[in-house]
Amino acid sequence: MSKYILPVSVFGTVFGSAVLLKNHVTGGPCPSKAKIPGKTVVITGANTGIGKETAKELAKRGGRIIMGCRDMEKCEAAAKEIRGQTLNPHVYARHIDLASINSIRQFAERVNQEETHVDVLINNAGVMRCPAGKTEDGFDIQFGVNHLGHFLLTNLLLEKLKDSAPSRVVNLTSLAHIVGEIDFNDLNWDNKKFDTKRAYCQSKLANVLFTRELAQRLEGTGVTVNCLHPGVVATELGRHTGLHQSQFSSSVLSPFFTLLVKGPELGAQPSVYLAVAEELEGVTGCYYDVMIEKEPAPKALDQEVSRRLWEASARLMGLEQAASAAVPASNRAQEKPSTDPDTKIIAKHSLSALEQTGMNPGV
Predict the structure, then answer these.
(1) pLDDT tens-digit series, residues 82-134
(2) Which residues contact 168 (CB under 8 A, 6 or more apart)?
(3) Angle, alpha carbons 17-21-25 (nearest 5°)
(4) Secondary structure tally for the chain: helices H, strands E
(5) Which of 4, 92, 200, 273 is catalytic?
(6) What are the φ/ψ torsions at residue 119 (nearest 5 degrees)?
(7) 200 an active-site residue?
(8) Which of 54, 139, 293, 362 is such that its CA lies 20 to 30 A from the CA of 60?
(9) CA 84 from centre of chain
(10) How far is CA 136 from CA 33, 133, 145, 358, in A?
(11) Quick check: helix, strand or coil at residue 293?
(12) Which long-range contacts (CB under 8 A, 24 or more apart) does 255-263 make?
């Protein structure tokens, strides 16, 4: 029997060390045990992956969960599953297509009408390195879904969030923002050769810039805005990356990916943390790498770029008036009308896109 002790001990030590290392690399579970009974949480992309696990965990904590999804069949199934697993009956499936201005407006209108308050908005949905394509309104699919769609949704729910203060907005971004560039001359890849990696990185940088700009504009309202990189998570989001499609990557690299890549349940923990942690009350405008606050890339700290991106996004979404109203009085005097020729080009694109949908560009 003694001859088995050493091998078993070695195996146990290696296995235990691997588990501890994975927890260290992936961040582990959310340290906050805070409950949220009576609070309403809106989560986009909640039928699968990180979004679904976030919805499940927040439902366990007593929240009223509004799951916003494009595929209603999957969303209804996920909501039913979460209700059964958590015994929380207040989990609802709602339709939203972040690639459609009309769909976003309909979703926001329903939330504003049906919900007495919105305490947390988690902008979770996204696409990653997908083939070239356009949204219903003519925007690059990654910039449109990852940034513009959530920009519009957040603005449409702002009054409800303010009325519900203290409330929180949580934006999911990516470490890929570090290499992102905002091309104001061609945000939607209309005039240059499409590069899916660069398009994705641009959209993720936009998430961080949006977070910081919105946090500044909401100063003093009781609404906080933070963003996070959830880590490397094995979800359907990476289906276009080509990972593990070669024999080498699937056989040789797979053990390392298993150690470093986490599943959706662990991937959801940073979102849960930013949504509920009591120690984050009042914290705003920050970037979190998993659950650790860090400084984002220098280009994400450029206030002029964040202002220009806000103005460009507002024009593309037809929100010029709302964007102006969102600036606190203390900051409004510092804002100057943009005479940038790049944003004039963007405004022209906005007008064309909105006319195609039959919407009033001034709304």
Answers:
(1) 999 999 999 999 999 999 999 999 999 999 999 999 999 999 999 998 999 99
(2) 119, 120, 121, 223, 224, 225, 226, 274, 275, 280
(3) 175
(4) 16, 8
(5) 200
(6) -95, -30
(7) yes
(8) 293
(9) 26
(10) 41, 10, 11, 12
(11) strand
(12) 259/18, 259/21, 259/22, 259/25, 260/22, 260/25, 260/26, 260/232, 261/232, 261/233, 261/234, 262/22, 262/26, 262/27, 262/231, 262/232, 262/233, 262/234, 263/233, 263/234
Closest CA to 32 of 277, 263, 228, 232: 277
Residue located via tokens 């849960």: 272
3-state class of 169 per DSSP? strand
Q: What would the two tokens of residue 249 be?
A: 């990557």
Confidence of residue 148 (pLDDT cuts 50, 70, 90): very high
Confidence of residue 2 (pLDDT cuts 50, 70, 90): low
d(CA 99, CA 143): 10
SS3 141: helix
What the block records as the tokens of 21 is: 């290392």
AA letter at 313: S
Tokens of 260: 């470093």
3-state secondary structure at position 249? helix
User: Amino acid letter at 240?
Assistant: H
| Residue 95, beta-bridge partner list | 69
Write out the H or E segment, with its range, that includes residue 54. helix 49-60
